[in-house]
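Q: Can I see a sequence and its folded structure?
A: Here is a first one.
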Amino acid sequence: MEPGLSSVQQRGNKFQLRVKHRLLKKPFFHTFDSEVEANSYAQILDGWLARGIVPLELLEASEGRGPASPLLLEVMRNYENDPNTRVAPSERPTLALLASETSGLRMSDITFHWVNKLIERYKTREDKKKLAPGTIRKRVGALSKVVEWYHRSTAKEGQQPAVNVLSLLPRGYSQYSDGSVRDVERDVRMSAEDEIAVRATLAGVKRPDKERAWGNDPDFEMLFSLIIETGLRLREAYRLRVEQVDAGRGVLRVDGSKGHHGASKPRMVPLKREIRARMSEYCKGRSGLVFPFWDGTPEDLQKCTARLSRRFATLFEYAMVPQFTEHDLRHETCCRWVLLKGERGWLFNEIEICKIMGWKDTKMMLRYASLRGEVLADRLL
């Protein structure tokens, strides 16, 4: 396949890119603010054309634009309402945010050049805090799913869907070249002293420098104990129902909250002896939901999560462990499962711990297991 014949010429204070190729019915023109930008895009287009890939913007320019393409907002709405598409609840706020950021944008406007500009805007926001690489990937990934769905649903029978330009982004596109913003790697453990302070706060013990105690809430204390002893996600814990607690067998039948495209992934979570006895006693005489924090409606899920997350933040602040978050409890529990020993050695292997925590990939355990060097060194003594 012959390479694309591209050239860049200065036109006033702008730079015009011209691309000619046998796959195009007529040359493609585009104007850039800088020569570097124009040459960079020219190299990308030449690479695509050399592999026989014609991006949508070149295809439309070559064949002549027909009727105006639909608005991205309209496509997003159809994507979310498609009965064959399962959109995870966690993706919907991201799509809503993208809709507000791209008001008036049409599908034909989503070119590789536009995508690069979007990512650049995320990294150079002057009025707001720069986005972390993980946040950028989350937004671009959500948009990519919408674009992919649109191309597949509008492809004519017998024709290949148009190329999704977001899928052609190079690896590492979300990283900052100067390293000024990085993904946050949580490496926080709860020491024995920290846990004593937190449990004292939960029991209503007042700090000497405070006028009043944080509070004495047995239900919230039970929620804290359940999460740190099992590793349940917050939403999994407060949605737990009494019939899912099998104290006799010492397991929880958990409805997972992180399934693919929002699908639930039920799993069995073992209960250690102490928390098993406490849960058995706590659930006596109860029916329905184990905890009283959620009203049971889908509409209250986000609000309940936010309420409880804020409460955990005030708890850790009062207990003087402000660096800790509710999600860090899950990291802590993973470490405890890894280090748990019985008479015959370690109780659980990597696969079993992933099953307990609700992970399909063992790499997740490596992310969550923040093992202290001194703990590992103790084994050598």
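Q: Show me another, different protein.
A: A second, unrelated one:
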Amino acid sequence: MQISQATSSSVWDSVAARDPRTDPWPLVHSPLPVTLLFAFYLLVVALGPFYMRNQKPLNLRGLLVAYNLSMMMLSSYMFYEVRRQDCSLLDKNLGTV
């Protein structure tokens, strides 16, 4: 009982100590959205094979090619921005004013 109370207390302490600048960010303001997404993921993993057992495999080749291309473009853009701003990933003062 004490372990669950300590865990619950430490979780809510970390939620209360959040950075207020991240409040408008999605999935950051509260642990509820991430918990719901995790529950949905578990539901899909558990029920997906049951649903697909008598189905033909889906043809996702075009969708996956588009996804991979978009991820390559996003990674290239992020690399370009980091190099353009001459940011060092090892800089300890990254993001300070």
